[in-house]
Amino acid sequence: MTDKELRGRVYSPDLDIADKKEAFVVWAxxxxxxxxxxxxxxxxxxxxxxxxxxxxxxxxxxxxxQEFEPGDxxxxxxxxxxxxxxxxxxxxxxxxxxxxxxxxxEAKPKAIKIKAA
Amino acid sequence: xxxxxFDDVWGWDPAWRRAFSPFGYRRTTRTYPxxxxxxxxxxxxxxxxxxxxxxDDLEITVQGRxxxxxxxxxxxxxxxxxxxITRERGRGEFARTLTLPYEVEPDKVEAHYDKGVLxxxxxxxxxxxxxxxxxxxx
Lengths: 117, 138
Fold this sequence. Notes:
Oligomer: heterodimer
Number of helices of chain A: 0
CATH class of chain A: Mainly Beta
Largest sheet of chain B: 4 strands, antiparallel
Distance between the termini of chain B: 92 Å
Radius of gyration of chain A: 19 Å
CATH topology of chain A: Immunoglobulin-like
CATH architecture of chain A: Sandwich
Strand order of the largest sheet of chain A: 1-7-5-4
Distance between the termini of chain A: 69 Å
Shape of chain B: elongated
Number of domains of chain A: 1
Structural class of chain A: mainly beta
Strand content of chain A: 35-45%
Helix content of chain A: under 10%
Largest interface: A-B, 48 and 56 residues
Strand content of chain B: 35-45%
Number of strands of chain B: 9
Number of helices of chain B: 2
Structural class of chain B: mainly beta
Order of helices and strands of chain B: HHEEEEEEEEE
């Protein structure tokens, strides 16, 4: 099994999405995932982000009480052509994935200058 | 009209997105943060998923059998002219008080935060540990 293979339960994380003028940014909670375990796939107009969370190392202690089940993460978003696909960037910090999707030049707001008559 | 752009860019519909991941579970815990506890007669290990937390924003207190986790989950901050299209991730203050199965040594409690996962090791107080009693021969 590679470390990018999803096992067991797969969660669809809650997302924050912002329009930052030059780019769209997507944040997703991927607790327990390391950068090596995150895989981003662009296929046609779909972007799929997967992350594998590390197993919890309890040092052999038995589980006494459980409120969450550790699992992996996967989410799929539909993109339009107004994203500059070659410049998509991802950063993982403290279990939060930030995906930056730069807008293609034609999608950026432009100021239209009015010519003097 | 940002919503038009939004629809254009994302083909957005949360239900649609979920529909795309038919096996994608969503975490629906009533209490935040969710906690798992591992342990034996000598120590406990509390594990909690707290992604995006800064250690300054978390306060852990232990007294006898009572453990309190208190903190703030700060949301993403945007600059001027930037706006949220969707905001699903939880944010705000949280506090949880747990009663542990036995008394722990407050001075020996250790907490580690890595990759958004908090782990707290809680060793049991010596005097509270179970002892085997040898039966003297008559």
